[in-house]
Amino acid sequence: MGAQHRTRFRKIHRPLLSRRSFLQGSAALLAVPVLESCGMSETPQPAIQSPAPLTPAPAPAPAPIPAPAPVPSPSPSPVPMAVAPKMAAFLHGVASGDPLTDRVILWTRVTLDAEAVTAATPAKVDYVMSLARDLSAPVKIGSFMTAADRDYTVKLDPDGLASYTTYYYQFSITLADGMVIKSPIGRTKTAPKAGDTDRLRIVSASCQSMSFGYFNAHGAMAVKPDHDVMLFLGDYIYETAASSQIPGRSGIPAKEITTLEDYRLRHAQYKSDPDLQANHRQIPFICVWDDHETTNNSYRASADNHTEGAEGCWEERMGWGIRAYFEWMPIRDNTSTAFDAPTAAACPGAPISGYLPEGNGRIERNFSYGDLVDIIMLDTRLQGRAKQNGTATVTAQQTILGETQRDRFLAKLASSTAKWKLVGQQMTFAPIKTVPLSEAQGGTYFNSDAWDGYRFDRNAVLKQIADNSIKNVVFLSGDTHVVTAFDVPMEPSDPARYNPATGAGSLAVEFSNSGIANVGVINEAQMANNPHLKYANLAERGYLLLDITAARTQGEYFFTGAPQTRSAVETFQRALVCAADSQRLTMGTTPTTGRGTAAPLAP
Question: Structure pTM?
């Protein structure tokens, strides 16, 4: 950046970026160094991260659902001519997601000056994609038109990429005076085809409440170059008005969010977190929502934490939450991106301005990672869930999936030819009992919000696995904020159907990840009543790493300490192993060794 531009930007007061951009980025991110990191030269330069992600102490060197048709997210229609802004910044980082063998979603958001935002001026954002860390010899270049109707977010789906390959990418925008503002450089990776790899390393996390603490686990994961993909299993944002004793982490806006503008602002606040930005910058995410992306204990028709009328119409509020999610997350849009929520019958007179979870906002989808892993992502929260109704009702109407999603899931389990079937979803799948007896003897279940409260669907899934001798199914779950690892038998309290010593009778296994920042809701005491619960940890926060080969899946728990203190130093806590075709967990001893052949991290 030339001296004239440096002087000019130092004289600009922060509020001129607009009220919206001030709220949607932290004060630190709006400071001058972010803008000064972007030069006028067309040669890509690394952007300065402010504040910088935490770096832990150096570690030793690492020795059927049809896939949604790939379509770009919509630009305004009709598209007005873009006007170059006077000022711009990439305050919310860059991200990638939903990798296929030949394409991957690239995401960012551009913050414009107040004058451009007030006029709802469309902006043209350019991008470059390369095999090289310094972005030399680009393999893809292009542009995307964004505007206020999508909150100035950018989402691309570049195709024609090589399978199981690391790419680097960067966005830029040209100002009215010709200066080029550049985003940080991101790094992503496509999915493998059959035969591309004999080993995968997949990380999983969920439940990050900004008001509760720092996102230390993201900081720890962000410095590991050999992760193939992140599965984020819900509660990416929290909708509450909770204040925080940690400066700068109380909710924005300072109320429970209910409107489209509210949901956008809350997503923007979370995307300002430097450790979350750092992890997004280095690894593609595959995400599903849980309840807090709309509101607590939600289901298709409403939520425990929604008051109809006082907090608007549920169909509209849900549609706005889903719309903001699709705008702000690196998730592939469905084939149709027309708004389909709310319906006139549900919210008379309301504009159609959001998405339905069973329609154009559907997140149920599948990913093939060669012949080693199929990743099946479910929506156990909004698409078909009935209202929570205790744990006694077991009927087709008391469903967590809905009939349509359940049928597709059962068909996918039966048709998958991959060695391992990973089921990424929000809720604890395995039974957890408070009275350790069979149902016939009066056994009672723990959590009506989890699959315990929707046993018709769980029974159907387990019957499908048993009847078709489907092997190597691994359920992944979030929601509870604690670590749990299970054998998954049909009836864990019946010794004739499950032997906890040998694992006989188990049909699958389950790993839950720990919450990144939230308090736990179940603990080790449950192990006495649930012999299929092989490991539980209430106190620690962190993430799950799955190291997968044809011979076994090993789940490894890494913890990063109390989230009230910002630190990316991690400790290995426990490994559990599921040998191929065993359908049971055994204790491991040491973590696996990372791959030394991983492509370098983005600068």
Answer: 0.89
